[in-house]
Each structure stands twice: as structure tokens, then as C-alpha cells.
């Protein structure tokens, strides 16, 4: 746990759909409860509003949530995952300490935002998001 | 020896061929994908040609790294990061030499293909671009013409395969009987080498 609330982990939500990314960001923010909420930015769809993935939107969203405590990126499918991986491999496209987190999109986003809002560090945020996979519904 | 101009011609020839074949690529992508492969690659390679003209990189490695980066930023589908990684890693492996031998290029392309397999998780036989690229790089030691033939045969050979990666894999056995769009566009990329060489 970090002791400084001004350095929260940022969360980026990458979906093929702008509406999905924005809605999941809103859902996660509202479930984070009152008080300080970790910075969350959606990066959904293509720049022209279509379905797909935009490296530009991912880079902009990442920069916007960078408070110096690291960034957890959660992606939905296919090209969203591959684009984040390719950007991370470039080295200089995303802020330092940005990590693609292996988590289900909705549940992982909620877990990540709630945990990050509590002031947890990047490793704890990642662990909470990954753990969302183990929550069985039936 | 292959210089920066050769690699620029390779990208220009690929862009022209993707333009010509865009409708066919999208048609192949319709029954098993989301019907955007042709238009996605057309947008990507058009942007590659424009940025190469503007920035005029002067080594083979720099040409391919710039092209790869441009594909990652402009394509919008999975082919962006996959082709982007292929070109960027191939370019990186070429270093900053002003000219490279065909053998050095073959080795570098193999490095690029390995990076694509690591990124997407596909192996030969999954009905992906890998099924055109691996036979092509194996044949590249003989000639650009042999590589073109091997890539085209590899693309056709994806037809009876069940797709194991990407959206087509959701179709399971129903993906059998469709030639993979990514393998088909990879064959265009390899065929463009022959044009760039002026053979």
C-alpha cells in the first residue's frame, strides 16, 4: 500500500467499442465508492468512432492517467490485446511502468479501480484484477 | 546487396498490391472474420508509403522500423500489431547497415516471424499468416521467386485447416474450407519482394 493519495495507479480500459470502454469505466468508478477515485480512462474503438483499436487513443488515455505510480491496462479481445502488447514492446510509446493486466474486462476493471482507489500499488492492483478470473458465478 | 531503396520499393509494391486485392481480402474475411481485412491493410500501407516519403529513412532497418510503427498506429485491427511487429522486428534485426545481403535479410525476417508468433501465439497449422510466412522464409534462401511461390502455396493450404487463432477460431470446424485472409495478405507481402527486386 502506498501512503500518498496523490500517487494513485492509473487504469486504462481498451475495448473494440468506445461505448463499452466508456461504460465500463463509468461502472468501475461508481463502484469504487466515495472519496478519492483512481484515474480511469477509456480507450475504445478507432479514432473515427468505428469498432477496432487505436494505438493513438491508448497512448493518449495512458498519458492522461499517469500519476507516476504506474498504469494497469485492461483490454477486451484480439486486436485490443495485441495492440497494447505491440506498444509495450516498442518501449517508448506508453508511460514508464505501464503493464498489460491479464484480467476479464468488466470484473477486472472494477477490481482494479476499487483497489487502486484505496491507494494500492501496481502489483496489488494487478493481483486484484487477475483474481477476478477466479470468481465463479455458478 | 539490398539498400534502403529496395525496402522502400518493397513497401510501395505491397501497398499497390494490397490496393488491387483489397476487395478479395475483405471477401475472404467476410465468412470467418469481420470483413475489414482489405480496408484495414489498405489504410495501413497507404500510410506507410506516405510516411516513408515524408521522413525518407536512409537504411534498410530504419525503413522497416518506421513502416512497422506506422502499421501499429493506423490499421485498427489485429493485422496492425501483427504486421507492425513483423516489419519492426525485421528492421531492428537489420541494424543500421546501409546495405544488407539477401542472407542477412532472410535471417532478420525469420526474427520478425518469430516475434509475430510470440505476440499472437500462433504456430504453423493454425490457419494464420504464419502458414504463408514460414514456408516463404524457408524458400527465401533459393530466390525471391521461390519465396513467392511458397507463400502462395502456404496461403492456399490454409483452406482445409481449422482456424485456431483470432475471431475465426470461434467458428471451430465451420472455419474449415476458408482460405485465411491473413495468410493471403502475407503472400502479397512476400510477392512484392520480387517486384522490388525488379525480377
From TrEMBL, chain A:
SUPFAM superfamilies: PTS system fructose IIA component-like. Residues 8-138 form the PTS EIIA type-4 domain. GO terms for molecular function: phosphoenolpyruvate-glycerone phosphotransferase activity. InterPro entries: DhaM, PTS_EIIA_man-typ, PTS_EIIA_man-typ_sf. This is PTS fructose transporter subunit IIA. The keyword Hydrolase does not apply. It comes from the Bacteria. One of its GO terms (biological process) is phosphoenolpyruvate-dependent sugar phosphotransferase system. One of its GO terms (cellular component) is membrane. Keywords: Transferase.
TrEMBL record, chain B:
It comes from the Bacteria. The keyword Transferase applies. InterPro entries: DhaK_L_YcgS, DhaL_dom, DhaL_dom_sf, Dihydroxyacetone_Kinase. One of its GO terms (cellular component) is cytosol. One of its GO terms (biological process) is glycerol catabolic process. Coiled coil: none annotated. This is Dihydroxyacetone kinase subunit L. It comes from Streptomyces albiflavescens. The lineage of its organism: Bacteria, Bacillati, Actinomycetota, Actinomycetes, Kitasatosporales.
